[in-house]
Structures
1.
Amino acid sequence: MSKRGQSSSMSYKDKANLHFVEQEEPAFIKALKSKMGYKEPAKLEDKFDDEEGPADFDDDETDLMRMKEEDRPQVVVLNEETDLTKEELNKELDAKKKEEEDKMIADGKITFKKPVKRTGNDGKEEEEAEKKKKKLAPEPKVQRGLLSFGDEEEEEED
């Protein structure tokens, strides 16, 4: 037993008898986490669950949407009336992608995309045309050998 005012260390038996009891989170913390969209980090048990995972994306449409265009299988059109052409397939995949993105935005999930690269023709052509005009326009030659002190003032008075 400890005396007042003295700090005593616990014995081995006392330390061995200590246990952590994990309790449920308070309601206000649960509410904050749900508002923020917090997801618990993956635990070891979650890695061995067979319920969900990458297997739920096994359908062909999502596979095609995730593939790069050059990695997709070759499209062969045997009957033009019933088969999809490559252009029609790309249009449908783009529409599905857009639909999924709209669905994610509606759910409140934000996705970030790489910015689209600009083409070099935007303002450079205009600048180059102006430079050519300046080069082609003859500049008046200034005679540097002559010294004139009052010419500027006389021109302003006229």
2.
Amino acid sequence: MIKFVPKYIYFWVFPQSFVVFPEYFIVICFIYILIVFVLVNYNIYGLLVQRALSECVSVILIMVCYLIANDMKIGINFLTFNDSIINDYLAFFTKFLVCFFSAIYFFIIADYLKEQKLIAFEYLLVIFAILGLMFLCNSNDLLTAYLAIELSSFGFYILASFKKVSNYSVESGIKYFVTGAISSSFFLLGSSFIYGFLGSIKFKDIFILFGSSNFDYLPCEAMVINNESENFACSITFFLQTLIQTDYEFFNFNFLELGLILILFSLFIKLALVPFHLWSLDVYEGSPTSSTFFFTVITKLSIFVLLIRICYLCFFELNEYWRFYSLWTGLLSIFIGSFGGLKQRKLKTLLAYSSISHMGYSLIAFSAANCLGIQILFIYLVIYMLSGLCVWSIFLFTRLKYKNFDKYNKELNDLVLLRKSNSGLAFALALTMFSIAGIPPLVGFLAKMGVFLSIMDLVGNYDQPWPFFTTFEINIAWVSFVKIALISILFSVVSTFYYIRIIKVLYFETLLIGKLYYSINNKKTIMFSILIFSLIFLFVNPGVLYLLTTKVILSLELFNSDMLSVFYYYSSILYKY
């Protein structure tokens, strides 16, 4: 009914501040739940309220997904809060995914919290973390992005250390806090360098500045007179005044490059990419399993959205710099993630190395700087999140039987009798491992093949300037993209070993002595059956993912017709496959 309302009534009823109405709804629900928890007697009703917490948060997130879906009718492509918040299709798509997968996450950990009798009200802070991830998808300047990162990080620190009886959990929280503080310092320092050089922190203004200026020699007076955008001229007032008051006609990009590099390194720390990955191994291993689940699965998408806004929608003209660091960081991450997990026996550490490797593949697709690379990046991240939900749900659904207490899987040897205790869960785990390894006929194969195709797409244009690019003489000219693709495939084969080793433990170990498991209820069975079925369905019919990600590419309005034609060609190949 909204679309039939006259335009003047529409903007009166739905002001631009309603662009963040889903975020308003989350804050109101958080305050309401917090008041209920304060008024309830902790000693009498604490466990009862805790058991209802996860289901309540799941329902809230499903309602938020509904509100985000209606943003297409209420306020798409709107700017608000002094142009600091943008609600374009990229934000709409990624916010919906974050809330949808977070709702599934809370459904999965509900029984875990009940069985462990965790009266941990700290899990309310997951709502704040999700709120920060949503604002990160909406951010349209560097300061808003920084505040969104900090809002989500505070929840992560407490989730890592809330298990106060465990020294490992407290240690993980401290390490996470120190690493996050260093990452935030890098981000602030890089943002200050960019603001000091350009006089603006808004993504659109910086993109217009780079698209309309030649920094080798910049005639300031001509730039002021010929510029037709008043907003653009106002946004770089500090930059122009600084220029006119100096005697320099040539620019030194060192501070601007340093600022961009510091921001990239800050986000690489958040993604646990090499060489900034060491903190993740200890934090993921020492944190409670439900918290590690959230760190490894839900948080990655929003950070990549910020990377896209900074590198593609802000500093696209400096692609020769950020692509250099992205390519080498991605290759090193695949190398460390593939070889580091070969001798691991602990499940959390093994999955931490797997996460490092997958983030490397995602970063390589990101560094392709073409339409296909961005599409494959989103497809890869969606499949990664879905596969992560499958793996961690199986680990949380299986409880080992002990004489005096229960515990969950921590090492590979704990999976020896899983096939005899519950053959369905063992088959689901094996299927998920094949998908993560990229073995057909599962959807993980399409994701990795797309990454290799996005790199091979650059081979034909290697000796020629790309459309929309000013230069292509980057620092890695001696490394062909064919070699990069072949090296990535080789590392992928190596990483397949430790995925297959889990299957070997499940099906081919001859030990007759092992640990038994509790049976799972109907709710758990339905949940992981739907997740496993989705892995097969998306391989048989990947058109849903390609359609949604194609709309994201077109909404960016960044690439020209030549690049879009190549994008449609490779997309048709993947879809027909």
3.
Amino acid sequence: LPGKSKTKENRQSIIHPDWNFEKMGIGGLDKEFSDIFRRAFASRVFPPEIVEQMGCKHVKGILLYGPPGCGKTLMARQIGKMLNAREPKVVNGPEILNKYVGESEANIRKLFADAEEEQRRLGANSGVHIIIFDEIDAICKQRGSMAGSTGVHDTVVNQLLSKIDGVEQLNNILVIGMTNRPDLIDEALLRPGRLEVKMEIGLPDEKGRFQILHIHTVRMREHQLLAEDVDIAELAVETKNFSGAELEGLVRAAQSTAMNRHIKASNKVEVDMEKAESLRVTRGDFFASLENDIKPAFGTNQEDYASYIMNGIIKWGDPVTRVLDDGELLVQQTKNSDRTPLVSVLLEGPPHSGKTALAAKIAEESNFPFIKICSPDKMIGFSETAKCQAMKKIFDDAYKSQLSCVVVDDIERLLDYVPIGPRFSNLVLQALLVLLKKAPPQGRKLLIIGTTSRKDVLQEMEMLNAFSTTIHVPNIATGEQLMEALELLGNFKDKERSTIAQNVKGKPVWIGIKKLLMLIEMSLQV
């Protein structure tokens, strides 16, 4: 038919003819991009008449979600560049909102006006109109969730729903929404026909980190500004749980460190041009930046647990060694077992027996890329709801890492337990029980270490069943164990130690290691 040949003749390829998939500049997101291409663009590559014969409707929406700095905006930008279509309309969610009644909805309608007009003119041969919403959670919150509001958010959601998949359906649009809070978005927006392709852009794995670092150092490599001792593969191993933005920041920090070597700071700041020509970014620059400048948001804050073990671990006897050995076995189980992605252990014992220090030591020795301590001292003055939210955030962050360790310290204090009454926070208890039993997402592994001085209380609350195993941490119980501890601490002379040994020989002792350290320090002041 003449009309058919004309359609074929005029039809342009949806993919830009000069587009090179290898030079996209998106590191570590190959699988995600190929999944998006399969779901959202495969039907658009085929001629419209074939798509029409199949009765196939194009995917109209994609939701990219994940932690900040992992490449959501970059992915959307590259999709726009790849398509042989108009320049994408990029909108920040809050820009839609307007103080005047009806203006927010009008802003939504304006975004779709060009697509509507072109579809009326060209029908199936209309080009793709891409609309990118950054921070889409700002305008698409659950309807009815904002108490006391004027309902403006609800009407914006309604308007967006009707434009994407309303009565007058548009088949020439692609809406890309981006957020790091998918839980806030109205469910109606996420059903098929709207933002139906939901893609998590998570933290890159080792291969992804290698690609990202390679992309950000390629210019330096081309101009011989990268020293030969820089091994990108080594850096990829060392930067566990770094996001794409943090890896870019690491490269920037290393460049600044290298440049700083060639700046003369006397009365005035000037560049030593003779040495500047030999500027090279070295392995040392990268590792100095790794040590001092860039720390991953979903990583391990060493200061967090270093304060709990500032006096080291005093191995005063077999009980301490046994706790550390059992902890190491549980760490290995978490790393190696595919059947138990969630492993939890409760260290219980009398006060001052060193449970928190042992938990922090097990966590430190695990070398997991994500270690967080959930401690009541960070939640002083929190309401019950705020405590639950703080605990949930720690666990949600842990689920984003492939290997994580969460130390839940002093559980009875977290629960606001008071023996007079007795009283405790049931809301926090129920939240903690859910978090302790919830398995991490597929491919992620989590070790939880809890500590308590009131095993009997947790038994009554039926919390012991939430842990995989329980390990007892005793006090120093014999004179021999006390002498071993004093020898390891090294605060007393031989004569003083022998006097103490004579007094405690064969006698029962009952003292916690923390209490012993305090008594020793007090005696040294006399």
4.
Amino acid sequence: MLQITRPIVISCLLFISGCVSIPPEAPELSAELGKRISAIEKANITLLNRFFDQKRRDVDRFIEDEWTPAFAENVFSQPGVAAAWDHIVHTDNQHERLKFLTITGPKLQKKINQKRLELIQPLDELERRMEGQIREEYHQARSINSTLTSFLTSASEVAENRNRYLSMLDIEQSQLDNLLDQTDTVVSDLLRKASDGKDKYARADEFIQRIQDLKSSL
């Protein structure tokens, strides 16, 4: 599970606030800290993207293994299609077989692609929102560190502003972790074989609604 590491700005603030004087190396160390914050941000964005890549693969597996067979069965159970298919199966006319496949195949594939888009698009939007939130929070962390650097020449100023900066530095780790846990649960429920009487169509519709609800919580 993705872990949003709280930047060590907090530790730096607590440390320097207890010092009588600020060492001359402090500004350089603070600048290095800013680079590390950016590296941590990049790592967490990468983990987030990989998490959602896996969820998209899970959705593709649902489409391929469950939804498409159920959809095809529903289509071929319709009287007109069933009669045409029965005729094709029992005929040796290659032209008619090819015509049936070239007409029916693209229509079926179009419906399958539409359903995949319906399921994948909410995941994409949720990923973008979470990534934007992570980037914004790390941007705030870098801004705080930059401002802190400007105060490193005066221990009194650092101590005076310590509490204010600590309250500003608010990486929403628990919220983001909770969203990822919920996303994982929603996708797992989509893949779970129907044991509660819900068919594949109902599970797909419920999946879309639950992902939309997660997006709305951001």
